[in-house]
Amino acid sequence: MSRAAALAIVLAALSSVSADSVRPVKVTKEAVEDEGGFRFRLSEGTDESALSPRARPAAGVPLDDAATKRVLDRLPAWSAPDDEHPLALRESSLPIPRPGRTVQEPFPPPSEVGRPAAPDRGEAGPLRVLRRAPGGDVPLAPSLSATFSQPMVAVTGHEDPGREARPVRLAPEPPGRWRWVGTKTLLFEPAGRFPMATDYRAEVPAGTRSAVEDGRALAQAVIWTFTTPAPTVTAASPKGGPARREPLLFAAFDQRIDPEAVAKRLRLRVGATSFPVRLATGEEVEADAAVKSMAAAAAAGRWLAFRPTETLPAGAEVTVVVPAGTPSAEGPKTTATEQSWSFHTFGPLRVSGRRCGWNDQCPPLSPWQIELSNPIDPKAFRKEMVRVEPELPGLKVQVFGPNLTISGASRGRTTYTVTLAAGLPDIFGQTLGQPATVSFTVGAAPESLFAPGGRSWSSTPPPARVSRSTA
Fold it and tell me: Beta strand pairing status for 303-308 and 249-253?
């Protein structure tokens, strides 16, 4: 029997047997050789562990071609699978776009050299100055410009035309560079900027002519002026206070100054008494962290540090006066008005105020604050210098400048007495000298209404709780 016939018989038998009833049979090489071919055996499925040894089956008889044909004729007709599809191809490319009309012009078009455009001749009539800048009082003047109504130079003549050929006269003229911007605008750029504290005058003389052959000259001179300001104080220290009685002072300006010339005019005024000052040394500036930082931030040559030649009174209001007539190192103008700032020197260390809560309401657990007249020395301060009666659980004391902040588990409807030790120090080397007491009356805890948890999307919100303090 051929291999194809055997396979057909197996398929026919399998088509009438369920999968659950098929039991796999082990086929060895020896069995194949003994039988003389490859054979199958089908039976009802049974647990192999329950099978008992069976007798050897009888030898089969191969089917002849006629018998095989009769078996194959019983099989259903063969049909091609229904999952076959033609090969999927991508969509075809779009057609080449076509113009709406046919253009008959050649490409590239033939080159045609036309006549050059006529040069800009500007306005007809006599020459005029259309714009000029700067003018009047200006805080800063980076450049000077003048624009004319007609071309003044050739297109290629943008370099400095020389002093005699310039249409603008400037006095005083600082170091800088003149150049043309286009053919109508003359620009002067000083080295950096125009010096401060100076009055400037610019003039375009009458009779100045343009570069246009038939242009008419400027009918009358055009004159304008501008002014840069005298020195102005931009930063100063100390301010407010308290400050030491021999303080190191600092002043910065908006322009270069001569420190010696400015220091000769400065005065410290306490009431009707004036105290002269001297320039601080480099060592004094290096030793003061605040002044050293401000000097580093200021431009070179625009600041001075100074101090009084004698000790200032204690607890006094001091006014630093930069008088009118203070000179600049950039120009001849001096200040027209007085400039000043104030600070006060330190006095004896004492308690100057107290606070608790908002609007002096003092609920339980809120911190207390004691204010002193001078900043407290944080390095020399010790927590033991503050005593609270009755005892305040969780006592914590913090130092912020002239303020002491005391916090802890304070009880409602209780008056606490805070005692500051006589040795409590300030940054000027002083102490209180004697104990100081401050009282704080803690009121009742306020009623509160709150709902625990966050926003809920439930139609039935969680119940709210009302807390009423009895402290």
Answer: antiparallel
In a domain, 205, yes or no: yes
Q: Which long-range contacts (CB under 8 A, 24 or more apart) does 19-25 make?
A: 20/45, 21/45, 23/48
Q: What is the pLDDT of residue 77?
A: 81
Alpha-carbon radius of gyration of the chain: 53
DSSP 67: H
Question: Which residues sit opposite 224 in a β-bridge?
Answer: 202
- Residue 112: pLDDT band by 50, 70, 90 thresholds? low
Please check whether residues 135 and 190 belong to one and the same domain: yes
Please compute, for residue 163, the number of CA atoms within 13 A of its CA located in the half-sphere on the CB side: 5
Query: Which residues lie across from 429 on neighbouring strands?
Result: none
What pLDDT score does 121 carry? 67
CB 140 within 8 A of CB 190: no
Same domain membership, residue 264 and residue 192: no
Same domain, 341 and 363: no
The distance from CA 140 to its chain's CA centroid, rounded to whole angstroms, is 29
Of the ranges 127-141, 317-331, 436-450, which one carries the lowest mean pLDDT score?
436-450
123 within domain boundaries: no
Count of domains forming the chain = 4
pLDDT reported for residue 386? 96
Domain boundary among 193, 208, 227: 227
CATH classification at residue 270: 2.60.40.1220
What residues make up the domain containing 215? 129-227
pTM > 0.85: no
Maximum mean pLDDT: which of 77-91, 210-224, 350-364, 399-413: 399-413
Smallest CA-to-CA distance from 208 within 127, 123, 131, 120 is with 127
Query: What separation in angstroms does the CA of 334 have from each of 72, 199, 232, 265?
Result: 126, 12, 10, 12
pLDDT tops 60 at residue 15: no
